[in-house]
Design a protein that fits this description.
Blueprint: E1 5-21, E2 28-42, E3 45-57, E4 64-67, H1 69-79
Antiparallel strand pairs: 1-2, 2-3, 3-4
């Protein structure tokens, strides 16, 4: 019998922050707060989450700065959910 298992990462945009200047590309844009979750998969179907990470992301160059869950919740409360 063959059992296929592995992992998959899913990404979700939680909200949009105010305009910030990116230190990488120099553009001033509304940054996004994103959550990435790693999932254990069985036969390519996500079964249960393995862990989550939160980031501030520049939408122009996709430069990401890791932030804590508490910081992501605070930013989404401050700027409103998308």
């Amino acid at each position: 019998m063959l059992i296929l298992f592995g992992t998959r990462t899913k990404e979700k945009t939680l909200c949009t922050e105010g305009a910030l200047r990116c230190s990488h590309c120099g553009n001033v844009t509304n940054w996004e707060v994103r959550k990435t979750t790693d999932w254990f998969t069985l036969f390519f179907v996500p079964v249960f989450p393995l862990g989550s990470r939160y980031y501030e992301v520049c939408p122009v160059c996709n430069r990401a700065n890791p932030i804590s869950r508490a910081d992501s919740e605070m930013l989404c409360r401050q700027f409103g959910r998308e």
